[in-house]
Input
Amino acid sequence: MCLLADSWDTVYTSGSLATLIRVRNCTFRGRVHLGTNAFMIKMTSYVLFSYRIVTGSFTKDVMVDNVPFPSGCYNTTIVDSFVLDDALVQDTFLLHRTYVSHGAVVVGCGTITCSGTDVTNGNGTALKVGVEIGGREIAMFADMPFHLAAVVGETRGNVSELKAYEDLVRTYTKKVQCDGFNVIAHQAKLLRCPKIRDVFVGDAAVLEDSVVSNSTILSSPAEVSSILGFSQVHSSILQWNAHVHSGSPNTAIAEGECTSTFLGPFVGFHHQAMIVAAFWPRGRGNVGYGANVGSNHTLKAPDQELWPGEGVFFGLSVSIKYPSNFTNAAYSVIATGVSTLPQKLDMPFALINTPGHNIPDLSPAINEIYPG
Output
């Protein structure tokens, strides 16, 4: 066992001598607190193998992939951090300015750092949706109700209300700042993540093999959130029971491109396809294989957008020209291979198809609509 510190005067511990065996091969720099009441007891000297050190209260096991591991600190450089009782920090290159709560697990990670006292963990970030040149930004905060985001995105004419909303977000963001610390909450797990920076990770959340920065992941034992499978998450808010591993509840984005888009619940996006500059708060639709929902450039500037309606189904290999508004065409289906011109469609439960026959003096590019 080998323990090193720049100064033992700034290493604070709690617990009993019996838990010394659970702190091994660690380097401490700056102020390090081990255990719930670590600020009460200061470690003033350490002699190798003398057992004069008092460690954090690491007495219980924690579960990693359903396998029990002894809590404690192993093979890690810990800088200006808190590691509370029965947490596990193991084989991590650097743990910097991080609060590791009871029963949390940090194993096999690269660097976990905090960049300063003014970090916001993604709160206050302006989410650009719809038209890519700006004008429909939504400033987000951690426990923002989905319907509020939809209202802010839809309603852009009332300047005083928008200013009041922006003031609310600024106040919220200031109040939730964590004095320049990452937070790894109760029973959260960070496994093999190469780089973590400026994060709040909620209770029982799971981050595996992923890079995460400037983000908040809200989670609870009943509604666990996760970031898995070599994902990269930056300047984001994940709410309870959100999963990133390949948006809004029960929406899946598997492959392809989703840019500058506000997706509501229950949107199916399971195939190689594209959706760009869409504002779809009511969701419940589908983007089929090969769908090109993203003709948002009139010339060079990406200055157009699409408003799909609730339940709209974009079929295989469709091509949707912008600007278009299908908000009053709820649960309509755009059939396979159809190209639609810029338009406003006000017929719900309709089938949009290619023309079944030619009509003189009418462009063949005009779609045929079958009422539902």
Q: What stands out?
A: Residues 3-118+179-244 form one domain. Residues 38-55 have pLDDT under 50 and may be disordered. The chain is about 5% helix and 35% strand.
